[in-house]
Amino acid sequence: MIAIADMEEINNIMKQADLIHSFAAIDQAMTRMAGEICNNLADSNPVVISLLKGGLVLSGQLLPRFDFPLQLDYVHATRYRDQTEGGSLHWIARPSMPIKNRTVLLLDDIFDEGHTLAAIYDYCLATGAKEVQTAVLLEKRHDRKARLMVDYVGLTVPDRYVFGFGMDYKGYLRNANGIYAVKGQ
Per-domain residue ranges for the chain? Predict the structure, then answer.
């Protein structure tokens, strides 16, 4: 359980945060992304895999916009464990359905450096996926990227600590109805 002093920090972070993208901008970006994905994957019988926890909100908002049959699964791998800096990859849950000879679409919240997404991408290919595509709500603007290129990007954000719409600050604020940056970061 988080201490009351820490809850004050969480509340202050939200009160002082800078709004980077409103819900309306996010909604517009998801509509565009869904159109691109539908055009490219409609006939591929894909397995759509949500990367938890961050990709949960994006997946819930994006999936109803897909007008083609698909199967849904999830993975849970993290480098952050409710911290603000990443460490080594820790697998909590791997895909539960077979992906061999299938097109896989990975849905995640943000492409920052991309180490987690790249590791899951590699895992899908190593377990026999025919093709792996990636979609992220946000791409952070900087030059520290892993080797992976993302196929579908909703919006870009500056190189700051962002939260909301699935992304957290110390395990909180994933439910913020927009994309916010921590003041001063």
Answer: 21-181
**CA-CA distances (angstroms) from residue 54 to 10, 171, 182?**
18, 10, 17
What topology is assigned to 21-181 in CATH?
A: Rossmann fold (3.40.50)
Residue 125's Cβ-count burial label (10 Å; 0-12, 13-18, 19+) is middle
Per the confidence metrics, is the pTM higher than 0.85?
yes
CA distance 142 to 157: 10
Of the listed ranges 44-58, 81-95, 117-131, the one predicted with least confidence: 81-95
Cα(100)–Cα(46) distance, integer angstroms:
11
Beta-bridge mates of residue 52: 76
Beta-strand ranges (E) seen in the chain are 18-22, 47-52, 71-78, 90-93, 103-111, 131-140, 152-157, 162-163, 178-181
